[in-house]
Amino acid sequence: MTQRTLFVSDLHLPNGPSPLRDGLIRLLDGPARATHAVYLLGDIFEYWIGDDVGLRDHAPVIDALRALNSAGVAIYAMHGNRDFLYGRAFERASGVQLLTDPTVVDVDGVPTLLSHGDLWCTDDHAYQRWRRFSRNRFAQWVFLKLPQSRRLRIAGGLRGQSADAKQTKSVEIMDVNPLAVEAAFRHYGVSRIIHGHTHRPADHRLSVDGREVERIVLADWHADLMEYLVAEHGHLRRMHV
After folding, report:
1. Angstrom distance (rounded) from CA 104 to CA 113
2. Which residue, among 197, 170, 205, 31, has the nearest Cα to 114 in the 3D structure?
3. What's the Cα-to-Cα distance from 178 to each of 115, 117, 136, 153, rounded to whole Å?
4. Using one digit for the tens of pLDDT, what is the confidence trace for 118-143?
5. How is the chain split into domains, by residue range?
6. Exposure of 103 in the CB half-sphere (CA atoms within 13 A)
7. Using DSSP, how many helices (H) and how many strands (E) does the chain show?
8. CATH architecture classification, 5-240
């Protein structure tokens, strides 16, 4: 049976009221109600320094997620490079189920590999070192033991460093590595990948070992452009809030 599925990533919601937050709540309260599943593929929030802070600072979004889940829509989320500290309290409060990155799901009969996408940016060696460190459970445990004010300062410093680094890195380094993507297609045996992270929305068609496959890159959000992807009846459509 055909079911409608919604995908979105890279909203980078700041703390407090914002057009982006309003847009997400409109999406969750409106179009998402007509789906059977919603996938949040990372960087929904600009940063997440722990459930104790995030659940408080983003309460309206958490409430909207919970209401959508209570209406019968399954909601899944992956960690991004900004919000990789979602925990069990987040799952319980929002009704969201956390997924391993990457994960294969059936999307309208098509085996599809979902990912935030940063794990395939293998040419950015400095970022990959940071990614391995930041996903280390002991490092996360130590960070979450720090006072909230200290965690907030660290997050602010890291965001500044990230912005500075982007000024000196080439466009190619910050994009996914084609060989890494091809390896993922081979390893998982899928014909479609959907991911975010790169902020370069596009539909890529390619051939891997004689198989025609597609890589769909989700859009990042801006106040004047809030895009999401819908899969239904064997087709993918980019839509706007």
Report:
1. 4
2. 197
3. 15, 12, 26, 36
4. 999 999 999 999 999 999 999 999 99
5. 5-240
6. 17
7. 8, 11
8. 4-Layer Sandwich (3.60)
